[in-house]
Write a structure and sequence with these properties.
Layout: E1 4-15, E2 18-30, E3 35-39, H1 46-54, E4 61-64, E5 67-70, E6 73-74, H2 80-86, E7 91-94, H3 98-101, H4 108-119, H5 124-137, H6 143-146, H7 156-168, E8 174-178, H8 186-203, E9 206-211, H9 214-220, E10 223-228, E11 231-237, H10 238-243, H11 248-255, H12 294-298, E12 303-304, E13 311-312
Length: 332
């Protein structure tokens, strides 16, 4: 049994124009100690899917799923009080921007100790000692003196380390890192990623890494899930995805990497990700796909599991990067 299991997750938001489906039929399974990356362009539903898991979406969101279970316990139908015993303790999330996630009105020490107070039976003295220990574990020098600092007194990298300390405080079994290196310089990015992976190995926790950096994915993850316009278009082991991408969108993303380009000008994907009012019929990627046929424009694609990387495509790519099963179709 997987540690975390999500089946057919859908998130819809109420808008002035009706409803907008930000996450569409997403599946995700994560095993103990596994590192899974979720990649895709901005607006592809990566963060929203994980915020739905955490129960942190606003009232305008409607979340449905056939199954959303942690360690065999169903989360969606669970009473709020019981769910709060799991979220923040067994499942924790590092947010994109620590300066907007940390409360500017409280010291970082207070905020770390508040997590410990809510989830663990520790005395006040034990919480203080544990907070110092956590700041030391995430590489903050002179941790005793930092407890009294407010977030604005620390750098972006230091605040991100404080956020990581808060999220690992209760030894979570699943840690979701939502683009944890956003707005940090390159040197600090590498340090934060190295820290997360070290903590993941030492504690044996599962790590879900949300990112748009394919280089980070190649270096850190074991499996990859590719999102496009709220849908999962491909899911593969890392080596398989980089060697033989099965969905045209994944293939186009990889071709745009500088290290993979053979030309001076990097190739790009024409067009934009569809929004609420311009969603095409059939495959959502068809307006930007070089292999699109009339069938792609009118019929929703099936999910291909097994040897074709779980590609959501009528014609998943073969090992030569050519679409399969389209011989009878007219390519336009």
């Amino acid at each position: 049994m997987s540690l975390l299991e999500i089946k057919n997750l859908t998130v819809e938001f109420k808008t002035a124009h009706g409803g907008f489906r930000a996450v569409d039929a997403v599946d995700l399974t994560i095993d103990e100690g596994e590192v899974v990356a979720i990649v895709g362009e901005s607006g592809s539903g990566k963060s929203v899917a994980m915020l739905a898991l955490m129960g942190l979406l606003p009232w305008t969101a409607t979340v449905t799923a056939d199954r959303m279970a942690f360690d065999g316990r169903e989360l969606l139908g669970m009473a709020a009080a019981k769910r709060r015993q799991i979220i923040g303790k067994d499942i924790a999330m590092i947010f994109q921007e620590p300066m907007t996630s940390l409360n500017p009105c409280f010291t970082v020490g207070f905020q770390i100790k508040e997590v410990l107070r809510r989830h663990l039976s520790l005395t006040r003295h034990e919480r203080g000692r544990r907070a110092v220990e956590l700041l030391g574990q995430v590489g903050i020098p002179a941790p005793e003196s930092r407890l009294s600092n407010f977030p604005h007194q620390l750098s972006g990298g230091m605040n991100q380390r404080v956020m990581i300390a808060m999220m690992i405080a209760c030894n979570p079994r699943v840690l979701v890192a939502d683009e944890p290196t956003t707005a940090l310089d390159v040197t600090i990015q590498a340090q934060i990623l190295e820290l997360l992976l070290m903590l993941q190995r030492e504690r044996g926790m599962a790590l879900v890494l949300i990112t748009h950096d394919m280089g980070v994915v190649a270096e850190t993850a074991q499996r990859v899930v590719v999102h496009y316009a709220g849908q999962q278009v491909e899911r593969q082991p890392v080596k398989g995805l980089f060697r033989y991408p099965r969905h045209p969108y994944t293939s186009a993303l990889l071709k745009a990497l500088p290290e993979r380009s053979h030309d001076r000008r990097l190739p790009s994907i024409p067009g934009v990700v569809p929004g609420q009012l311009d969603r095409p019929g059939g495959c959502l990627f068809n307006p930007r796909c070089v292999w699109a046929t009339d069938k792609c424009r009118t019929v929703e694609p099936p999910r291909h599991d097994g040897g074709v990387g779980g590609a959501l495509c009528h014609y998943p790519l073969d090992e030569q990067g050519e679409p399969t099963g389209r011989e009878a179709e007219a390519i336009s």
